[in-house]
UniProtKB/TrEMBL annotation:
Keywords: Flavoprotein, Oxidoreductase. The keyword Flavoprotein applies. The keyword Flavoprotein applies. Residues 9-537 form the FAD-dependent oxidoreductase 2 FAD-binding domain. Pfam families: FAD_binding_2 (PF00890). InterPro entries: FAD-dep_OxRdtase_2_FAD-bd (IPR003953), FAD/NAD-bd_sf (IPR036188), KsdD_DH (IPR014614), Succ_DH/fumarate_Rdtase_cat_sf (IPR027477). This is FAD-binding dehydrogenase. It comes from Agromyces archimandritae. PANTHER family: 3-KETOSTEROID-DELTA-1-DEHYDROGENASE, KSDD-LIKE STEROID DEHYDROGENASE RV0785. One of its GO terms (molecular function) is steroid dehydrogenase activity, acting on the CH-CH group of donors.
């Protein structure tokens, strides 16, 4: 176990976004940083690289240009109504983080990112539209700002700053170094030790080997755990699955690579840190199997507009307000209580062209590549965006037919073990089409669609004009089989506002910090039970920044 001559001021465990942000802040302060990660160098940037690049901002110029009136007070109302904080002890720091984060998202966040070269797409999205009440879950206004460059665009400035630190002799990057233990001496975390893994040529996101070829031990006055959550470890997801969400799914798709395994959470707990809210998690119900997968059980999330009709596995229409894009966990809870692991969207070609987007940097080459011509063609031109059309043609979960009887028959064939009430699906579609004849309706989903189109951003690129599904001019008809897709942990290592990890007695564990998803994106659960979307990357930014600046202030 050779000893490195490099003497870091801090060790960062994990080379994802939150770890890179913490390291870049330390580089700015002239501090020395050692970054260790179990994956190959190809995976620098972690999960964030794969993301759509959504950022939660409040009262931004982008919102104001589209006529959106937002405020810190309204955003806090939405955040606390969504979070549902109800655990005095475990939520104590999550509440403080929520207040601080909303203040950050209203104030310096946008200018701070712009100073690093991060730009924003001008149309603001409206995610998690809510459960139908002013006090309760959901965003009252559009707040989902898309990074120009998506996930790679948000990772780039921090990765570049770290590389500059390497060139300046302030940073060492040690890939294929798996931490198995935090070194604790006299109650203080003094460093890390673990196994050196064999080199691996795995591309970004692909599974890498776990062959041990050596050991290591590194020491520093501060250690930052930036290792992510548990979404790639389905056994852990099921172990901590909450009763309120029903029975854990027997089968799930993975929205994150396998290395998002949750190992460091137990290791950090063994060093004295307190884990809280482990039963809070964020998984999607609009998952589809990737026809061109990178990792095992690789799933992609549909980012739906509000027009698709949503049916459970047996053909019952989901109740209001469980419409596409309104209440992720409410829909998950409802569907899990049906006893089946899938559900269905039924829609038209007119809907898919206007309303379907796919989550992920690789599924949005126009935004990721900052290609204005491709963006105009894919978002404003005729036809569905290229990646959506590819799934429509090649995806195992897509069914396309000219007539409703043909579509329903193929839906039945796609799930032969579940009795599908195709007569009810037909009744619902016919009844829904009758409601389109008037500008007023008792169908709450149609009312929601018309309301959404009052927002210019939705009318331009996100919500199709109301139309009859059985109108041949809107066809063909499309059905999409949807699956549960694992994604985020909302609980984790409890931290104070400096990202210092807290022990069971509520006091900081000397020398230990936690950031990003490993810390429940701050405080051990800044989101409470539910998220407002665009808040995951932002939590990595905010908590990583807090840790880096806190360590930099140390003597």
């Amino acid at each position: 176990m050779p000893e490195s001559p490099f003497r870091p001021d801090a060790i960062v465990v994990g080379a994802g976004l939150s770890g890179l942000v913490a390291a870049s802040e330390l580089v700015d302060a002239g501090k020395r940083v050692l970054i260790v990660d179990q994956e190959p160098a190809a995976s620098l940037g972690g999960q964030a690289w794969w993301s759509f690049g959504g950022l939660f901002l409040v009262d931004s110029p982008e919102q104001r240009r589209l006529g959106v009136k937002d405020s810190e007070e309204l955003a806090l109302q939405d955040w606390f109504g969504t979070a549902g904080f109800d655990r005095d002890d475990e939520d104590a720091w999550g509440r403080r983080w929520a207040e601080a984060y909303v203040r950050f998202a209203t104030g310096e966040k946008r200018d701070w990112l712009r100073s690093k070269g991060v730009g924003l797409f001008p149309v603001v999205g409206w995610a998690e539209r809510g459960a139908g009440a002013a006090i309760g879950h959901g965003n009252s206004v559009p707040r989902f700002h898309i990074t120009w460059g998506t996930g790679p665009g948000i990772v780039a400035p921090f990765a570049e700053r770290v590389r500059e630190g390497v060139a300046a002799g302030l940073v060492e990057l040690r890939f294929r170094h798996r931490v198995d233990e935090l070194v604790v001496e006299d109650g203080t975390v003094a460093g890390v030790r673990g196994a050196v893994l064999a080199p691996d040529a795995a591309a970004r996101g692909e599974a890498s080997n776990r062959d041990e070829v050596g050991t290591f031990e590194f020491r520093a006055p501060a250690t930052v755990v930036a290792s992510g959550g548990i979404g790639g470890n389905h056994d852990l997801v099921r172990e901590y699955w909450p009763e309120r969400l029903g029975t854990p799914p027997a089968e799930m798709l993975s929205g994150v690579p396998a290395h998002v395994d949750g190992r460091m959470l137990g290791i950090t707990e063994a060093a004295g840190a307190r884990l809280v809210n482990r039963d809070r998690m964020w998984h999607y119900v609009e998952g589809i199997e990737n026809w061109d997968p990178v990792w095992a059980r690789h799933g992609i999330r549909i980012l739906p507009g509000p027009s698709s009709l949503w049916f459970d596995a047996e053909g019952r229409r989901l109740p209001a307000p469980l419409f596409p894009g309104f209440d992720t966990l409410g829909t998950l809870e409802h569907l899990q209580r049906t006893g089946h692991g899938h559900s269905w969207f039924v829609l038209t070609q007119a809907v898919i062209e206007k309303e379907f987007a796919l989550s992920g940097s690789e599924q949005n080459p126009d935004l990721t590549g900052k290609d204005v011509k491709l963006l105009a063609k894919s978002r404003l031109g005729k036809g569905a965006p290229g990646p959506v059309e590819a799934f429509k043609q090649h995806g195992a979960d897509f069914i396309v037919e000219a007539t409703l009887p043909e579509l329903l028959e193929r839906m039945r064939e796609a799930s032969p073990d579940v009795p599908l009430d195709t007569d009810n699906i037909e009744r619902e579609i016919v009844a829904r089409d009758r409601e389109i004849d008037n500008e007023f309706t008792k169908d709450a989903q149609i009312t929601a669609i018309r309301g959404a189109r009052n927002y210019l951003g939705d009318k331009l690129i996100r919500v199709a004009p109301p139309h009859k599904f059985l109108d041949p001019k809107a066809g063909p008809l499309i059905a999409v089989k949807l699956h549960v897709l694992t994604r985020k942990s909302l609980g984790g290592i409890q931290t104070d506002l400096e990202s210092r990890a807290l022990g069971s007695d509520g006091s900081p564990v000397p020398g230990l910090y936690a950031v990003g998803e490993a810390a429940g994106f701050g405080g051990g659960g800044v989101h409470g039970y539910r998220a407002l979307e665009g808040t995951f990357l932002g939590g990595c930014l905010f908590s990583g920044r807090a840790a880096g600046r806190s360590i930099a202030r140390r003597p």
